[in-house]
Structure formats: structure tokens, C-alpha cells
Design a protein that fits this description.
By secondary structure, the protein is α+β, with helices and mostly antiparallel strands. The protein has three domains: 226 residues, 2-Layer Sandwich (BirA Bifunctional Protein, domain 2); 131 residues, YbaK/aminoacyl-tRNA synthetase-associated domain (YbaK protein, Alpha-Beta Complex); 100 residues, 3-Layer(aba) Sandwich (Rossmann fold), CATH 3.40.50. Helix content is 28%, strand content 29%. The chain is built from 16 helices and 31 strands. Strands 3, 7, 8, 9, 10, 11, 12, 21 and 24 form a nine-stranded mixed β-sheet that branches. Strand 11 and strand 12 form a beta hairpin. The chain is globular. It binds adenosine-5'-triphosphate and magnesium ion. Magnesium ion binds next to strand 21.
Length: 574
């Protein structure tokens, strides 16, 4: 491709609305242009990167036995009503009507369509397992579309759905996809981590991993172990419970006055105790149910863990002060677990029963109990891991200190179980002629988001540094002087020679200063640059530059094409 003919509008200025580096660089390097908030046109170089990632994804899906299909973007409301998601999906769903007033939505995901397909086409266990995928645009009316391709309202996703006979089959399909995802992101040249994640409201049989590209601009927070391969989404992460070295009190609990004291810090100051000796007691409202949650004073409650532990409420929140007053007869700052009404369930974090000597509220405004022994002095109806993990705590698996990082979710693998197959009656007959529900999994990769993630991880002050496997072109040839006939002609010859060798190459044939061409080449991030200048060419040499390492070398004109080809081949090896 000749740069003079390429639609590659580069910019020197940083676009004002682009907050993160990948968004800035994609606009500046002329890869994308916005049409409306969350909607973008991919220009030629952007599309080439997209196609490369798509190809890698397709190869790996096919290698695992995936069969590619293409489902409609427009989905009839009836199917969404059948799954029960029409009403719960909320404002993210783009809804529209046809001329006959029939309701549709633009697919944000395709569980409904595919399960509807399978219920019509799969009859026997002999057809299973079945892995079907597509690479297609998805539509989500995100509350905050931002960061360019990172969070768009239209984006390209690869979604695969697995159908198996049983849980064991699902586990196999899941593992296949997990392995394929590792290969995909490695092949794209990304540094990533699969992390255990929360299965959340999608339900299913549990089991889900998110694939995170580690980058400071990531919207997700990840906890990982410094000693082993444990990694989890922060909201899901676990660690070893801590036992505090303390002596159990000899006598009974004592009631002490704590006038005007409300917060944890105020209690600690007033009684000269550490927050880790406090039992923080919180009255919670989950849908219609009220219960008391206990957690150590120095810990943060994880509401997601709490909700999962109790079976999933639609709404879960702290009870209002009036409610606290009504049920416990005190203000929220004096709530405690001792002598609570019989019907009130007490749910404790697993560190509570490990406390030897504690302080807690007395359910009497302005009073606390000291010398409390949790295992002796109050009821613990249910005990779970309910807290957020803190930096440096001990890994549940190996005990090494945990660390934290930011991540961009580029993919997710998910065990759905029979949620959709049951709702749609997607069944098959097993060997005994018995009718069973297909056991499903779903597996997504954000193809457009992966481009942004790759840039977040691979750039410098001058621009993008593409990993070779996803670079829009492998190599750029820059004739530094357009006046020198020998330079121009040699550049042309080299361009043709590289093309013959199958190298994806562009020739910057523009009548521009060398400095402008160098700047653009660095900004766009071609992995290899070949520069032809009058001086070096007089000695039969050209300059070969590696964008990533900045290494430059002078190479004889007759050798350069072969050397470029070898560099590319080496970088593409996996
Ligand atoms: P997020 O939590 O970031 O909103 P999600 O959990 O809703 O993502 P999934 O439904 O698991 O996303 O979709 C599969 C993949 O699609 C994600 O891992 C992500 O890479 C990509 N993706 C999701 N939403 C967007 C978006 N608005 N723009 C670009 N890519 C997206
Ligand atoms: Mg997700």
C-alpha cells in the first residue's frame, strides 16, 4: 500500500475528549473516527488490526471444534420474554418496533436466539457436544460509553455457546474454551491473566473466569498472588482468615457508656482499642427480609459475597436508621449482636468466631459491650467469607502475600447450566431414550476492546508499538529524500520485493519531510521501519529499525528484504 493513497489521517494534537491513551492514540494514528457517542468507523488500518485478531480468534475456535454461524442482530421480543430477560435487562437493551408494531431488540448477546435454534435442531445425545460461535456486532446502550473502542455501544464480539449432555461435558467444553482463550491472547501478544470472577445475576452453575489484560487504565480491579497462579476479580477474591493473637477475657461482658460515639474510629478512640477488636454490626435489608451482618471493625463488607451467600436478593441495602430504631431500639452506631430479637438472623464473616476478645454495640444508644467472646456471647446463625480482601493478605492457596492490579476484561468464559435450555425446552434424548436439558456454556471475547487493550499495553511517548501478530502492516519503507532518484527508485524496488516475499508493507511515497514521515510511522506503530537516505545508500546500505527495541542497524540493500522477512517470521512464531 502507498501511504499517499491510504486513508490514514494522523493528528499531532491529543483529542480533548479522549481520556485514556488507547483512545487518544487510535484517533491520532488514524485508526478510528467517531460517528456518535459509542459508535465508530474503523478506518483501513484499524480494520486490518481487527481482522487479524478475528482471524486468530477464528482459528482457535475452529481448532477446538467450534462451528461458525451468523445470527441476526435483530431479535424478536418474544424470545426475550420467554427467557424472562425482556423486563430485567433494563435500559442497556436497544428496543425498537417494526412497521407492524412488533417489538424487537438489537442483540446485546445471543443466548435467546441460539437456544431457540438448538431446541429445533438437536434431538439426540449423538449430536452433542455442539459448539457454535459467531463473530458479530453487539449492541448495548451503555450508561457511560467511553474510552473509544473500550466501552462502545456497538462493538464486535466473538460469542461461542456450548451444548453438552451433562455437567462433565460442560466442564470439558469450558476447559477447551479456557485453553483456547489463553492461546488467543498469547498469540495476540498480550500480557493477560485469567481471573476467577463472580457469576452474579446470570446465575448458572457458577464457574466463570474473566480474561484480564493488565493495564493501569483498566476499569476492573484484580487480586493476584505473588507466589502462585491464584488470581481473582477483587469482588470475588478470597484469602485466609486472620486470627488475632489475644487473650480471652476472664469474666463476663461489661456494658460501658460511650456517649455520642457513633463511628468505628470514635469507638476505638473512646475505649482505646484497635478496630480489629470491634464487631461491626450492620442491619441489612434484602428484599423483604431483615438480618444482622457482623464483620470485624477493620474489614470492609463485600455486598456481592453477602448477596451470593444468602441466595441472591434483587435489592440489598443497609436498613434505614428508622428501621434500625424500630427493630433494635437504638441508632445505627450502637447496633450489636447480643440479645437481638429471636427472629432476626445473624450472619457473620468467618473471622468473627475466631475473635477472642471483642467490643460490640449494645443495642442501646450510647453504650457498648467490652470483653465479648463471640463464640460464647451471641448467636451466629450463618458464617461465610463476607469481606473484601486487603493488599498483602495471605493467599488462600499458598499463603504468599496477595497483590492488586488493574485489568481490562477482554473475555469471559461462563457456565450457564440449564437456565436457558430449561426455559426454552432445548432438550435431547439420551441413550436410554430419556429427555434431558442441554447443559450450556457461553464464552465471549471483546474483539474491538482487545485492540484498545493491546494499545494500552504497547505504546510509548511517540505512539503505538504493535505486537507483530496484530500490526496493521509489518513494515514501512521511508525514502528520506524524495529528490534523490536513486533513493526513490530503490525504495520502489524494495517495496515490490517485500510484497513478493509476502510481507505486509507500506511505502511512504508522500512528498513530505523525513521528520514528518518518521513521526507518523512511530505514531501508527509499524513494527519494522526501513529508511533509505542518500548518504547510506551511496554505500549500498539502508537503515533497519525495530519499533519496539529502537535498535537500528545498517543493512546491505541486497540483504534487507530477507532480513525483514526473517524478523517477521520470528515474531509471528507461537
Ligand atoms: P463489562 O463488565 O466490561 O461491561 P460484560 O461483563 O458486560 O463487560 P460480557 O457480556 O461478558 O461483558 O461480554 C463479553 C466481552 O465483550 C467482554 O469480556 C468484553 O471484552 C466485551 N465487551 C462487553 N461490553 C463491551 C462494550 N460496551 N464495548 C466493548 N466491548 C465490550
Ligand atoms: Mg463479563
Amino acid at each position: 500500500m502507498l501511504v499517499s493513497q491510504l486513508l490514514n489521517p494522523t493528528l499531532r494534537e491529543v483529542p480533548a475528549e479522549a481520556e485514556v491513551i488507547s483512545h487518544q492514540l487510535m484517533v491520532r494514528a488514524g485508526l478510528i473516527r467517531k460517528s456518535a457517542s459509542g459508535f465508530y468507523t474503523l478506518l483501513p488500518l484499524g480494520l486490518r488490526v481487527l481482522r487479524k485478531i478475528e482471524t486468530i480468534v477464528r482459528e482457535e475456535m475452529d481448532a477446538k471444534g467450534g462451528q461458525e454461524i451468523l445470527m441476526p442482530i435483530m431479535q424478536p421480543a418474544e424470545l426475550w420474554k420467554e427467557s424472562g430477560r425482556w423486563d430485567v435487562y433494563g435500559a442497556e437493551l436497544f428496543r425498537l418496533k417494526d412497521r407492524h408494531n412488533r417489538e424487537f431488540c438489537l442483540g446485546p448477546t445471543h443466548e435467546e436466539i441460539i437456544t431457540d435454534l438448538i431446541r429445533g435442531e438437536v434431538r439426540s445425545y449423538k449430536q452433542l457436544p455442539m459448539l457454535l460461535y459467531q463473530i458479530q456486532n453487539k449492541y448495548r446502550d451503555e450508561r457511560r460509553p467511553r474510552f473509544g473502542l473500550m466501552r462502545g455501544r456497538e462493538f464486535l464480539m466473538k460469542d461461542l455457546y456450548s451444548f453438552d449432555r451433562d455437567e462433565a461435558g460442560l466442564q470439558e467444553s469450558y476447559q477447551k474454551m479456557y485453553d483456547a482463550y489463553c492461546r488467543i491472547f498469547s498469540r495476540c501478544g498480550l500480557s493477560y491473566r485469567p481471573v476467577e470472577a463472580d457469576a452474579g445475576a446470570i446465575g448458572g452453575t457458577g464457574g466463570t473466569h474473566e480474561f484480564m489484560v493488565l493495564a493501569d487504565s483498566g476499569e476492573n480491579s484484580v487480586v493476584y498472588c505473588s507466589g502462585c497462579d491464584y488470581a481473582a476479580n477483587t469482588e470475588k477474591s478470597e484469602c485466609r482468615p486472620q486470627v488475632i493473637d489475644d487473650i480471652s477475657p476472664e469474666g463476663q461482658t461489661k456494658l460501658v457508656a460511650t456517649p455520642g460515639v457513633k463511628t468505628i474510629n470514635e469507638v476505638c478512640e473512646h475505649l482505646t482499642v484497635l478496630p480489629s477488636t470491634l464487631v461491626k454490626s450492620l442491619l441489612y435489608q434484602g428484599d423483604e427480609k431483615t438480618f444482622l451482618v457482623l464483620i470485624r471493625g477493620d474489614r470492609t463488607l463485600n455486598e456481592i459475597k453477602l448477596n451470593n451467600a444468602l441466595g441472591g436478593f434483587v435489592s440489598l441495602q443497609l436498613a434505614a436508621p428508622e428501621q434500625v430504631e424500630k427493630i433494635l431500639g437504638c441508632g445505627p452506631g450502637s447496633v450489636g449482636p447480643i440479645e437481638v430479637p429471636e427472629g432476626l438472623m445473624v450472619v457473620a464473616d468467618q473471622e468473627i468466631p475466631l475473635m477472642k476478645r471483642a467490643v460490640c454495640g449494645a443495642n442501646k444508644t450510647g453504650y457498648h459491650y467490652v470483653d465479648v467472646v463471640p463464640s460464647r456471647d451471641f448467636r451466629l446463625d450463618q458464617v461465610f467469607d463476607l469481606r473484601m480482601v486487603e493488599l498483602g493478605e495471605a493467599c488462600l492457596k499458598c499463603g504468599a502475600p496477595l497483590k492488586e492490579a488493574r485489568g481490562i476484561e477482554v473475555g469471559q468464559v461462563f457456565k450457564l447450566g440449564t437456565k436457558y435450555s430449561k426455559a426454552f425446552g432445548a432438550t435431547f434424548l439420551d441413550e436410554n431414550g430419556e429427555e434431558k436439558c442441554c447443559v450450556m456454556g457461553c464464552y465471549g471475547i471483546g474483539v474491538t476492546r482487545s485492540i484498545a487493550a493491546a494499545i494500552e499495553q504497547n505504546h510509548d511517548d511517540f505512539g503505538i508499538i504493535w505486537p507483530m501478530p496484530i500490526a496493521p502492516y509489518h513494515c514501512i519503507i521511508i525514502p528520506a529524500s524524495t529528490k534523490d532518484v536513486q533513493v526513490v527508485e530503490t525504495a520502489q524496488k524494495l517495496y515490490q520485493e517485500l510484497q513478493r516475499l509476502g510481507v505486509e508493507v507500506v511505502l511512504d511515497d508522500r512528498d513530505e519531510r523525513a521528520g514528518v514521515k518518521f513521526k507518523d510511522a512511530d505514531l501508527v506503530g509499524y513494527p519494522i521501519r526501513v529508511t533509505l537516505g542518500s548518504k547510506t545508500l551511496a554505500n549500498g546500505q539502508v537503515e533497519l529499525k525495530d519499533r519496539k527495541t529502537n535498535d537500528t542497524q545498517l543493512v546491505l540493500v541486497k540483504d534487507v528484504a530477507r532480513q525483514v522477512k526473517a524478523m517477521i517470521q520470528q515474531a509471528l512464531q507461537y
